[in-house]
Amino acid sequence: MHTDELSWFVVLAETEHVTDAATELGISQPTLSRALARIEEQVGVPLFDRVNRRLRLNGYGEILLEHARRSIAEMRSATERIAALRDPDSGTVRLAFLHSQASWFVPDLLRRFRAEAPRVQFGLVQGAAHEIVERLAGGQADLAITSPRPEGYRWRGLYIERLCLAVPRGHRLASRNRVKLADAGNEPFVALAPGFGLRQLTDELCAEADIDPDVVFEAMEIPTMEGLVAAGFGVAVVPVPRPERAEPGAVYLPLSQASAKRQLGLAWSADRSLPPAAERFADFVIRTTHDVD
Fold it and tell me: In this predicted model, what pLDDT tens digit does every residue of 230-278 receive, in sequence order?
């Protein structure tokens, strides 16, 4: 199966639309349709269900999509490793990281690493914890800075963030030095959407405190949560902010639960070798941060 055609199949599987996929790929629709027919002939089954002139990836197609992504990632990795052997100071690191690490931790790492290896390039993507794990699994990312620790991956703890309860200024709890999460059990909550690592930790803390909070809004980023707390929409479990990044309209109360923390770490596949540039960056991250495993 030709590598180009595998790449075409991935785009088609992601768009489920021949016209859109052909446009994105810069090829004609008949060319793409013929390529799909050849792939389906080789695997011996249809990969899409045809519904009202639309394509819907079926179970066979999902299996091929998983392996196609891995194959493409492996070929890209091989090409990058060969290039790195020819020129050890070059290469590309594909790094996925949490939204919350985009404002200071990741930029600081990149700044310090680029001073040491200025010719190494980066392919950066930020997302939720489940999206990051999917990218690692599919070979679309070499390394990930994420939380909580994903199962089945190599891991290096980098640092621990304490979690706190953010409440609006003037809130009935705002004057406390410390708070139990159970004390906010009847409050409306602002949280991240399901699939985010912090939402998973928040749900676990609430279960531990034996409360079932009313989540009135699900955000995509922590600053949005803090802004809505300041606007009086509810309370939220968030990492203790750096002083210069705290929301002025919110009060951050330490939580009394010992488990109110999250560990950020570096994760990578246990089954694939890292490309040289990614291995160099991983070594740099491990060497310049504290081990908190």
Answer: 999 999 999 999 888 899 999 999 999 999 999 999 999 998 888 888 9
DSSP string, 85-114: HH-TT--EEEEEEEGGGTTTHHHHHHHHHH
Q: Specify whether the CB–CB gap between 253 and 171 falls below 8 A.
A: no
Helix 59-86 to helix 3-15 angle, to the nearest 10 degrees? 130
Domains of the chain: 3-66 (1.10.10.10), 86-158+263-287 (3.40.190.10), 160-262 (3.40.190.10)
Q: How many other CB atoms are found less than 10 A from the CB of residue 236? A: 30
pLDDT in tens, 172-230: 999 999 999 999 999 999 999 998 999 999 999 999 999 999 999 999 999 999 999 99
For residue 45, which phi and psi values (nearest 5 degrees)? -145, 155
Alpha-carbon distance values, 213 to 69, 171, 234, 249, 253 (Å):
39, 17, 11, 22, 18
Q: What angle do CA 59, 62, 63 make, to 5 degrees?
A: 95
In sequence order, the 6+-apart residues with CB closer than 8 A to the CB of 123 are 92, 93, 94, 95
